[in-house]
Amino acid sequence: MSEVLKRLLATTVFATCAVAANAQENNGMGAVAEMPAQSGQALEVPPGTSVRYSAGQSIVLGAAAQPVPEPLPLPAVPVQPQAASVRYSAGDSIVLGAPAPATPVQSTKAAAPQRTFGFSQGAVIPLAGAFGDSVSTHIGINHGSLVERNGLVNTSPAGLVGLFVIKAGIIYYFDHQPRKIREAGLKATAGVWSGVTMNNLLLIAGATNPISLVGGLAFGAYMYHREGLALAKEAAAQAASRSATAP
Questions:
Q1: How far is Cα 72 from Cα 110, in angstroms, rounded to an integer?
Q2: pLDDT of residue 155
Q3: Which residues in the chain land under pLDDT 70?
Q4: Is 216 exposed, middle or buried (0-12, 13-18, 19+ CB in 10 A)?
């Protein structure tokens, strides 16, 4: 019986020492409590005690978990309405859906006067004056009482023909110039060579020099005016043709 008591006493002493040692170890390291994680809420436990969340991380009690701020939405950028247009390389823009007006080919052709052998209808009076000057000069030179006073003029038939060709070239040049230069050149050539033709015809008819000069000037002024009327009529016909062919 004494042997059983000895063993029971030894077992009791050993268990008591083990419990005391375990309690001392817990007091030195601090207690650990297993608690569920709650975002943004501090747990009231004694200082120095750590809490372990279900996710496995441990934090010091007393410091609340900071909530993650949600990102602010970006401000909406106002979209300006864009005009539906297309820009070409010359810098012009047209609205899409409206086709660009096509330039009619007929109106471009109608803007230029009709020509025969390169001369327009407006060059008829100047050509007639140049031809009349050459012919009247040839007739006057063959007349016994008339002499060409201009030494630069070749009075032979070939020379008079060449002189007419030169005058026709001058008329051709003016006939292909812009509108203002063309009108001024054609009216001037019509007045001058028509007046010289009338002067030659009056001399051939036996008129004296002052009368032939006055008659030539008057006839030249008249043909100058007639040429202006012919050019105005030509311009009116071209304008009517453009308006008729316009879309």
A1: 70
A2: 67
A3: 1-5, 13-15, 17-69, 76-112, 144-155, 246-247
A4: buried
Query: Measured between alpha carbons, how far is 236 from 220 in angstroms, rounded to an integer?
Result: 25
Give the pLDDT score at 207. 83
The pTM assigned to this predicted structure is 0.52
Instruction: Give the Cα separation of 203 and 181 in Å (integer).
Output: 33
pLDDT at residue 242 in the model? 80
- The dihedrals phi and psi of 50, each to the nearest 5 degrees, come to -105, 150
Query: 138-146 long-range contacts, Cβ below 8 Å, gap at least 24?
Result: 139/200, 139/204, 140/200, 140/203, 140/204, 143/204, 146/203, 146/204
Task: Find tokens 């601090």 and name the residue.
Answer: 30
- For the record, the structure tokens of 159 come out as 């020379």
Report pLDDT for 186: 95
In three-state secondary structure terms, 59 is strand
**Residues 10 and 27: beta-carbon distance below 8 Å:** no
